[in-house]
Write a structure and sequence with these properties.
Largest sheet: 2 strands, antiparallel
Order of helices and strands: EEHHHHHHEEHEHEHHEHHEHHHHHH
Strand content: 5-15%
Structural class: mainly alpha
Number of helices: 18
Number of strands: 8
Shape: elongated
Distance between the termini: 95 Å
Amino acid sequence: MSRIEKDFLGERELPDNAYYGVQTLRGKENFYITGQPMSGEPSMVKGLAYVKKAAAMANRDLGALDAKVAEAIGKACDRLIAGEFVDQFVTDFIQGGAGTSINMNANEVIANVALESMGKPKGDYATISPNDHVNCSQSTNDSYPTAFRLALIMRLKEYAKTLQGLQEAFRAKGVEFDHVLKMGRTHLQDAVPMSMGAEFNGFATTIGEEIQRIEESCSLLREVNLGATAIGTSVNAPEGYPELAVEYLSKATGEKFVLAHDLVEATSDTGAYVQLSGVLKRTAVKLTKICNDLRLLASGPRCGLNEINLPQLQPGSSIMPGKVNPVIPEVVNQTGFFVIGMDLTVTLAASAGQLQLNVMEPVIGYALFSSISAMQNAVKSLTENCVKGITANTKRTEAMVLGSLGIVTQLSPILGYKRCAEIAREGYLQNKSIHEIVVKERKLITQEKWDEVFSFDNLINPQFIKS
């Protein structure tokens, strides 16, 4: 079974079970770039449905759309919001036309779902038209970016929860490792002692900062140009439509959207996407740093730092028996590199806007959704498959601290920098411990004073101690 649909370019045959129409079909055929259709990002489908419903309700109130038609469109949108018909969104993520094909994909699917609910055949566009009714008072240039921003907010909320899970996992390890003494390092060289708990609390804190940056990005995304239509002049939209459509969108989604005060500027501006991409990159950079630290701290196990143990998940070599690699931190590193690359894509696409429109939003969408998805998956894996199972090698870390030359820093207030430097040099050249030189050989301080300076509490929360 099939049906014939036509546009001003001619007629095309479509399978009768397809809810999309002729314009979607052309977009599907013209743009086969990533091989990933919009159905792969259900949040974008929901975003489009919310926008189309808000538009229909505003147009109904303003007399631009028949009430029965508006209600049928609204009910069709509700079904998309509930997760139906996602498979009907068949156009590629990356496409020419600034997203016109995906906008028409939504218009045609909604029109045909509405027609079916009215007992009408698919393609009966005289009754409900994708362009004249579903797209009433809209252009791709305002409906697509608004839906895109809503979809990003929905995805970012999920992503933020995943980051929160990682933050909590690091914080729990901070508590677990609170009394594990270890050596802090700068320049990959021994510095001064610290608690391993403090190290893991630091990881938790830095992840918490990223959650805050996500909310700041969402606040920028809540400013929309719905009602701007083609270039920001609101051509073909009734008076009061932009404000009313945004009000309906806010009520339907529970998000406090605001109408941009300058719709011409907002229609061509992509600054919010650049900032969001920068936030995703920033988190990728931080996670890369953390995972590098985890790999270093777990290095060995016999011939490395071996301060912590990562969960052993799989054999690490096809030739070296018994070898286990830090595969989760490694894959998170690689995800970070991918996201950093996607940020460059967003940067270039945002800079390519010309005059009253940036036609490169589809690739921005692909880059941002891909980055969020990859980061969310990587963070989940890092949390569940790595961080929660980390254990500390407490005896080894304590022995490393007491055998380090770096602890001589604790004696500077008592012995002075110059003398301490000489002691450290002697220890290095003669392979002696600081305790051996200071207490046993030179008798510069007593054992009691040594015990006071190098108690666990004073090493991880150092107090100024004079002689």
